[in-house]
Amino acid sequence: MKKALITGITGQDGAYLAEFLLKKGYEVHGVKRRSSLLNTDRIDHLYHDPHEPDVKFRLHYGDLTDSTNLIRLIQEVQPDEIYNLAAQSHVKVSFETPEYTANADGVGVLRILEAVRLLDLTKKTRIYQASTSELYGLVQAVPQSEPTPFYPRSPYAVAKLYGYWIVVNYREAYGMYACNGILFNHESPIRGETFVTRKITRAASKIALGLQNCLYVGNLSAQRDWGHAKDYVEAMWLMLQQETAEDFVIATGITTTVRDFIRMAFIELGIEVEFSGKDENERGVIIDIDEERALALGLNLDALRFGQTVVKVDPRYFRATEVDLLIGDATKAYTKLGWKPKYDLQALVTDMVIADLHLVKKDEYLKKGGFNTLNYFE
Ligand code: NDP
Ligand code: GDR
Question: Measuring CA to CA, which residue among 225, 205, 215 is closest to residue 282?
Answer without folding.
Answer: 215
